[in-house]
Design goal:
The N terminus is likely disordered. The protein is of the alpha+beta class. It folds into 2 domains: 116 residues, no CATH class; 107 residues, Arc Repressor Mutant, subunit A (Orthogonal Bundle), CATH 1.10.10. A 4-stranded antiparallel sheet has the order 3-4-6-5. The protein has a 3-stranded antiparallel sheet with strand order 7-11-10. The chain has a two-stranded antiparallel sheet with strand order 1-2. Helices cover 53% and strands 20% of the residues. The radius of gyration is 28 Å and the shape is elongated. GO terms for molecular function: DNA binding. This is Toxin-antitoxin system, toxin component, Bro family protein. It holds the Pfam family Bro-N.
Length: 279
């Protein structure tokens, strides 16, 4: 496809998406949907598109020349994986609804028809006219199904992570808790392990709360993907509720009091022994 034809094709797809009166442009590259990053960032309230794009992996983004406002411009595009990454980092409550719209309505329609057709518009199908056309269409469907299966396998960790995080909006990470308490993260982990609040379970589950503290509503575990030399593995991350932060704070205060009390006793005993020696 020549650059001119490619430009025309992309221009035709620029206004194909409309989510709650906001435009989200998409283009197909080798039958894969790529979203205009600026549109997605605006909808998800990422104020700086460039900063958001920097966080994505290299295979989740690319630049493409598009015809915008009468000019050819370089724009950032993101694939499905990049889209999920941006949704994950969005603080907007509607992000979950947007993700469901993408995964349940838009993407299935694109994969089935090669374009987005909303539910209130009739789909138009071209029936094969010859045996050869029917056979070619069957082969294309088989290849497409294989590709979709591979895509689902690749995207499942991010989808699972997104769904987990959407249910943990009132929880904090241990990093956040450590900062709020003005303790180092490693120091806090060590303190909680020493006090039998957390324990070491395995290489990828190092600071897991005991079940009784989970049952009390102090902590929650979520599955997160972790890149290792052996590939992508699922690990567990400990999140802390507001109730859990209060519990940790009280535990630290008690520890500091006991430490101060013990030091005070030592000083008294030391002074007493010294005075007795002087006498």
């Amino acid at each position: 496809m020549s650059d001119q034809k490619e430009m025309i094709f992309m221009k035709q797809l620029e206004k194909i998406f409309n989510y709650q009166s906001k435009e989200v442009r998409v283009i197909l590259i080798k039958n894969q949907p790529w979203f205009v990053a600026r549109d997605v960032c605006a909808l998800l309230e990422h104020s700086d598109t460039s900063t958001a794009i920097k966080r994505l992996d290299s295979d989740e983004k690319l630049t493409q020349t598009m015809f915008v406002s009468g000019q050819n411009r370089e724009v950032w595009l993101i694939n499905e994986s990049g889209l999920y990454s941006l949704i994950l980092t969005s603080r907007k409550p509607e992000a979950k609804a947007f993700k469901r719209w993408i995964t349940h309505e838009v993407l299935p329609s694109i994969r089935k028809t090669g374009q987005y057709i909303s539910a209130d518009h009739p789909s138009r199908f071209k029936l094969p006219m010859t045996y050869k056309e029917a056979l070619l269409e069957l082969v294309a469907k088989v290849e497409e199904n294989e590709r979709l299966q591979n895509t689902l396998i690749e995207q499942s960790p991010k989808i699972e992570l997104y769904n987990s995080l959407m249910d943990t909006t009132n929880f904090q990470t241990m990093n956040q808790v450590a900062k709020s308490l003005r303790w180092g993260r490693n120091r806090l982990y060590k303190f909680l392990r020493k006090n039998k609040v957390l324990f070491y379970k395995s290489q990828y589950e190092r600071n897991i709360p005991y079940q009784r503290y989970i049952d009390n509503g102090y902590f929650r575990l979520i599955a997160v993907p972790l890149r290792t030399d052996a590939g992508l593995v699922m690990s567990s991350q400990t999140l802390v509720s507001a109730k859990g932060v209060e519990f940790i704070h009280k535990l630290i205060k008690q520890h500091m009091f006991e430490k101060s009390y013990a030091n005070g006793i030592k000083q008294i005993l030391k002074a007493g022994v010294y005075n007795e020696f002087q006498c």
